[in-house]
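Translate sequence into structure tokens.
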Amino acid sequence: DVKNDPDKEEEIKTDSPIATLLNRLRDCVNRDLIDSFAVEFCYQNNKGNRKRLVKALFNAPRTQLDLLPYYARLTATLAPYFKDIPEQLNFMLEEELNFLQQRKKDVVQLDAKIKNIRFLAELVKFKLCHPNTIFGLIRACLDDFTPHNIEIVCNLFEVCGRFLYRSPGTSTRLVNMLEIFAKLKQVKINDPRLETMAESAIFACNPSKRAAKKARPPLHSYIRYLLFEHLNTQTVEYVTRQLRKLPWDECESLVRKCYLRLHRYRFNAVAPLAQTLAAIARERKQLTVCIIDSLLEMIRVDLEVNDYRRHQTRLMAVAFLGELYNRHLIGTH
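Result follows.
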């Protein structure tokens, strides 16, 4: 009798469709797989299966932290329809984390702590876990600034620090905690490994701003656009017409520099570049002579120095010289 045989009953549960589906959970390593898993779970939804799913999510392997963002995505996908899933998962994660935090000297449990806090941090980004939970953990770790707690704070900052920093409601609070963390790092962290982790965590929250692009006058930007980006075999005539319309008293030196910055061009743009120079050579004889003289000097210097880093530019310069010869701008001498 199956009802009186616990082993047989457990075997049937193991071979059930929900068990087969949950066994695939660890193989869901991208968004498409986890989304299809969510759809299939909806066809097997009931209260018992939801509890099994929460247990499977809670028991995520500690050595596969890369699965946690997809587990959080699955929870967020199902949350609008099954509100008990995120509630139970949050409760289980926080309960275990509070228990582990009481065992401060247990080195073995550090991996379990990191898994739980990273999972909670992923849920925060989907707004399934309240930010106060994360801030409470950060505050507790800053108050007891031990190596274990330093690693926990670093993991929290790396996973959800940027999200909290960019969110209007939590930005000020996170900035204050980052300042406290930075001061404690300078005073109390002596281990190079922990110091590197702390610096990476701070950078993850607030990356340094990139250097602003150089502001150029609109005319200079337009000339650079014409020669560097728009010039090709089909646009030679248009570019030539636009160059003839330029106020040469203001931009002749810039045009000369653009013609000589050959590393900015593709190789198939060398012939059109020479063609445009040949077209304006009669009106701009001085410009043409300056470009040719500078080109010859650049080739001579490159041949003398023989720097391998300028090999591509050297080839472009020689090709440009050959195209100028084809356009009868230079002679064989």
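Note: Confidence is low (pLDDT under 50) at residues 1-12.
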